[in-house]
């Protein structure tokens, strides 16, 4: 097992309305993840709203997380930024604060060319001093990686793994095989998009970068262990049991759902960064009722 | 004439590789725009790479521009930010530094809902103290305004105008009519996307938010004056004469072309914020030859 296989749990970063970190809240989110024995923790991912936080807050969140996990779980840290020099600074900050690897998304305002993205990754991998996970999230970055570009990036010194969006059921076998064919042998292919992750692992993915696991690590871990044991029917049954949560994620976004559940689950009173708005109260009540009915809370 | 009609020229913000403002370079870019008598200047637009600059640099750029124009031309200033509170701070900074209005784009990382965008604009209009131009730029923000949302935003106190992407030739009459039908009477509809702007003005737009005018104000001004005088044939002929420049913009992006032309035109040595890369030398040479052949330089 490496830091880039198995279950990676992505918690929210609890902050107040002004974007100040709730350090105690972060510790309370992390403790059950460590206790459950997840394979890695992804702090400051998209679910951790990294794009909305200052460099200082991001640095502090990594330090708090590193202290909380105390070397028991690898920490993957979102270091994406619009500017290359800022991403390099964030990589160095994260390394010094105790990160095991950086999650680098090609955050964009002006649309980026393939060459610009390649050179951005090469610069951050070369100057940041932190192993990188290629963070492919077209819904937020609006950059579309080709398999060929992922293959070229995977050969850069310092690029350690890739986190791809989970392919749709129709495309999963072809997409995973295509990615596998483009990266070096043994390069860790991981997937996000919780409702597509089980099939992506069955098709050959070795990691699940999971929003749900940031709140509910155990049922996600059972799925990963089942896939790893070759028990695909069991993995699919366990995944099917999560359908009510996946339906909430699809309808309201996984970020908004897990953020909205934190307070009723006794995990502080985190506030989403405006302009992002909290779930309407009725949806939050429905989400809470759903996870209770599923036995998750 | 208001600050939201006629020709608005959008210069680059000249910076070094570290994102530090070249103040003298900015003054040299602005002087010919003032001299040409453009109707407004848009500093820190997408062409002004606002998204890549710190709050301090943005504030300083507005102050330098305000001093340079000395009240002779209204200054429109990009105040977009991922966080609502930051956009409010940028609006206040810009107002204090001498801006006439703020250009507010719904910059996003997590995709935004219509309600989130509406409330973001309401908050910045209400708390920022600066008249706002709705800045609709789906290529960079990835948010798509509906005409109905623009109509609702146009009725918010403090929202003064809208800058829309220039519709394609097939859609221009219908799109401009639809927008005109949704905003209050007299609300200034303006357009960007230089190669579509002439037809958008002929169809009823009252402003052209122009990248080309940031370097070449006079030929753009002739087009606007021709439209305003009802000389549509002449406006179209003048626009057709700009086709070689529009073709460069379409092939390489308007930002990269005007940025690449600044140095050979004697306007300092601005550096694009990495990961954005300069034009390949051959394209820059081609662009320079093109604008020379057009008599623009």
From TrEMBL, chains A, B:
EC number(s) reported in the record: 4.3.3.7
Name of the top EC class for this enzyme: lyase
Pfam family name, one: DHDPS
Organism this protein belongs to: Methylobacterium aerolatum
Domain of life: Bacteria
Protein name, UniProt field: 4-hydroxy-tetrahydrodipicolinate synthase
Record GO terms (molecular function): 4-hydroxy-tetrahydrodipicolinate synthase activity
Family that this chain belongs to: Belongs to the DapA family.
InterPro entries: Aldolase_TIM, DapA-like
